Amino acid sequence: MRVAIAGAGAVGRSIAAELLENGHEVLLIDKAPTAISVERVPQAEWLLADACEITSLDEAALQRCNVVIAATGDDKVNLVVSLLAKTEYGVPRVVSRVNNPKNEWLFNESWGVDVAVSTPRLMSALVEEAVSVGDLVRLLRFSHGDANLVELTLPPESALAGTRVGEVDWPQDTSLVTIIRGSRVLTPSVEESLEAGDELLFVAAQAREEQLEDLLSVRRES
């Protein structure tokens, strides 16, 4: 897979290093000469250019990329890069960094964004996830389809504790994708039983989140 990353700061370089380690081709783009640190990620391709300029993106051959990541520290730049990647070059997957949570509403399919990653929101969500049992925590928003990645830790008193996954009448437009049980990551099968303390990860339509939380938090009858 070929990935172009706009923004060669600490965030962009870290993403690049991880992707390279997983066997992907990576191109880092930045207009600041001081950001071009080839020795830090020597396996990556580097391009000194303004990612908001069509001529720069032509030089980067963005049409050959499977994924574009807009990872600069400027939300305006990330939106422009996302829009150009999607509309001018037809990049299948566009991931964009949100620096200011107040701008998060802009990062949607209208601007070419498939997945918006808000670092402040993610950090706060992880804090909530660490201390919340029985409360739904939104981890990630997917622009297409108005769906979110959400997490809930099943409380001991939940009526669903001990129930098999296939026996649960899940809300429409929700999908249980992973069960984290201690150090184990389980792919949920219809025969898998839910246990108190399980961290349940769902992809769910935003309109169904409250219904999902209510279902999982219903107390068993004493």
Could you characterize the architecture of this molecule?
One of its GO terms (cellular component) is plasma membrane. By secondary structure, the chain is an alpha/beta fold. It folds into two domains: 1-117, NAD(P)-binding Rossmann-like Domain (Rossmann fold), CATH 3.40.50.720; 131-214, Alpha-Beta Plaits, CATH 3.30.70.1450. The protein has five helices and eleven strands, in the order E-H-E-E-H-E-H-E-E-H-E-E-E-E-E-H. The chain has helices spanning 10-21, 54-59, 75-87, 119-131, 209-217; strands spanning 2-6, 25-30, 45-48, 67-70, 93-98, 115-118, 137-142, 147-153, 174-181, 184-186, 199-205. Strands 3-2-1-4-5-6-7-8-11-9-10 form an eleven-stranded mixed beta sheet, with helices on both faces. Residues 123-131 have low confidence and may be disordered.
